[in-house]
Amino acid sequence: MIGTIRKHQAWLWYIIIAVTIVTFVGFLSPSRNRGYGDGSSVDFGSVFGEPVGRQAFRDAMAEERLDFRLRYNQWPAQEEQLRQMGYDLTAKTYQRLFLNAKVKELKIEVSNTAVLRRIRQYFGLGPDQALPQNTYAEFVVKELNQNNCSQFDFERFVRNKLGHEQLISLFGMSGELITPKEAESFYRRENEPVLASVAFFTSTNFARQVDVTPQALHEYYTNNQSAYRIPERVEVAYIKFDKTNFLTEVSALITNFDQTVSAIYAEKGAAAFKDKDGKQMPEAEAKALIKTQVLDTGTLTLARKKANTFINETYEKFATSPFSIENFTELANEKGLEVFTSKPFDAATGPKLKVTSEFTQAAFGLSETNRNDLEDKTHRSLMYKKPLSGEDAAYVIALKRRIPSRLQSFEEVKSEVIKDYKHTKASELATVAGDKFGSTVTNGLASGKTFGELCEEADVKSINLPPFSMATRVFPELDKNQFQELQHAVSGLPVGKASPFMQQLDGGFVVYVKERQAVDLAKMKTDLPAFIEQLRANRQIAAFNEWFQKNYPNAVRRPVTSKDQG
Q1: Quick one: 536 and 477 in the same domain?
Q2: What is Dmax (Cα atoms) for the chain?
Q3: How does DSSP assign 522-535, residue by residue?
Q4: Do residues 508 and 494 both lie within one domain?
Q5: 371 and 454: one domain?
Q6: Does a structural domain hold residue 301?
Q7: Where is the domain boundary, 517, 533, 553?
Q8: For residue 463, what are the β-bridge partners?
Q9: Strand pairing partners for 339?
Q10: Is 270 in the same domain as 333?
Q11: Whether 328 and 438 share a structural domain
């Protein structure tokens, strides 16, 4: 088997991995981790006085990107979008370098068994369940490779993640010092049922009161011009290497296909294959699904290989002469490849193609600004350097034009301005009414009136909410954000008292606490052990964060230009 693999191109390895039952423990050797100094002449800063090497920095950034993917169910996007999220990828990378160095300094060892167990958990498997190799291979090819990560990046990330957890246990040890009595007090506070009434003041209830005049609209447009600016967009030329074009070629490469499919089905077990209703699929349907998945992985991999060949040939042809979009199209036509043009798209929404966020990032990374750059005489920054994978194809792209951001005129967006103006003014009216009612309730309750009487006098509709607690996570009567703000408002609010007006994006509310019910003692007895464990874990993380904040600034030196490196 090993000899056969080596005779083929690298892309074939993924097909073979996907259709054979193998183990990958051999890939999990800690020796694959890079050191911090690698002889790079570029300054990447230092950790504990040791210079950070280029490879160590890139490895840590790959790990941070993987962590982002697992946390937010998406890969990191453009820097501007990350900034809007309050997320600094470079800063997070240096924090990860610090933790990785501390794991190494303390000689914390993570076993292959622990790494494999955690990987199984990521795939929703139990500790004793085998990870199907075709599933893992598909993950490597479709998820990791398409987003500039490798299998080794992922397995190193898992190993270091487990090492970080051991650091938390070590430096957060003081967080475990919480008594059952203290925990019971916290449990009661979190799980005490509350009965409340709430009066909402929403913009929709005040929309008819908004007076729309031409002067008011123009003033609103002038004061909010940034909202009517079309962002910078790009238009790219692209060649689509559709995976369906390589179905015959891939099928011919896989010998004994039916036997291989049967082996995968036997390895995973019949219960692993469910239909859309969660019922076990018949064997024939399950095997058809396996066959489709294997072919899907193989055809997409071959499509990337063909796309990469085109890119390499383009680089060779224009190694010493200027590259242009015309050259790109001409070479494609010579090879019988059709060149398409995307519709202009911005960085936030991306193109109307079945592609990942990497496509958008790559497109906005293309530029004509360095046409006079001595290091890029061929202007190859116009074409992206590698294939980009989508759901059904691999793509090669080149920049056709960049469309600057522009402010839309009032006439272009008049209907949108009217809508926004009405909503803004209606929200302001709701806020004024809510503030007034909040004051009325505070004074009225003090004089002995009930919340219901005060609502009736003010002609305000109130809603009696079903019991909820601070631990309630799902509340169908309200949307998630609205309910979380309401929980915050009643936290610590005595029975018989009302909150002040709590402003929200679309108005706000005043909430009144009618009753606080007793905690279910039987349920508390059952829940308390797990609650104590979670509480101690939270305290442990808090103690660890305190250690981190104290030690990180003195241990890490970041270069001034670090944001431009990697």
Answers
A1: no
A2: 90
A3: HHHHHHHHHHHHHH
A4: yes
A5: no
A6: yes
A7: 517
A8: 198
A9: 239
A10: yes
A11: no
**Domains in the chain, number:** 3
- Compare 173 and 464 and report the one with higher pLDDT: 464
Distance CA 78, CA 347 (A): 7
Q: What is the pLDDT of residues 515-554, one digit of tens each?
A: 999 999 999 999 888 888 888 888 888 888 889 999 999 9
Between CA 112 and CA 123 the distance in angstroms is 17
* Helical segments of 73-210, H only: 79-84, 89-105, 112-122, 133-138, 151-171, 180-191
Residue 461, domain extent: 193-208+416-517
Q: Could you tell me if 341 and 447 lie in one domain? A: no
Residue 376 lies in a domain: yes
* Residue given tokens 């999220």 in the structure block: 85
Residue 193 is inside which H or E element, if any?
none
- Give CA–CA dist 85/93, Å, rounded: 16
- 512 and 532 together in one domain: no
Cα distances from 201 to residues 205, 298, 465, 511, in angstroms, run 7, 57, 16, 11
- State the Cα angle at 527 between 526 and 530, rounded to 5°: 120
Task: Please name which of 259, 175, 196 lies closest in space to residue 534, comparing C-alpha atoms.
Answer: 175
Quick check: helix, strand or coil at residue 447?
coil
CA distance 192 to 184: 12
Query: For residue 13, what pLDDT is reported?
Result: 36
Burial 204-243 (b: 16+ CB within 10 A, else e): eebeeebeeeeeebeebbeeeeeebeeeebbbbbbbbbeb
Examine residue 509 and state whether it is found in any structural domain, yes or no: yes
Say whether pLDDT at 340 is over 80. yes
Lowest mean pLDDT among 41-55, 112-126, 252-266, 437-451: 252-266
The angle subtended at Cα 196 by Cα 194 and Cα 200, nearest 5°, is: 140
Between the alpha carbon of residue 489 and those of residues 66, 254, 485, 492, 546, the distances in Å are: 36, 63, 6, 8, 29
How distant, in Å, are the alpha carbons of 182, 453, 463 from that of 493?
21, 20, 18
At 100 the pLDDT is 94
Which of 103, 76, 70 lies closest to 90 in space, CA to CA? 76
Same domain for 430 and 366: no
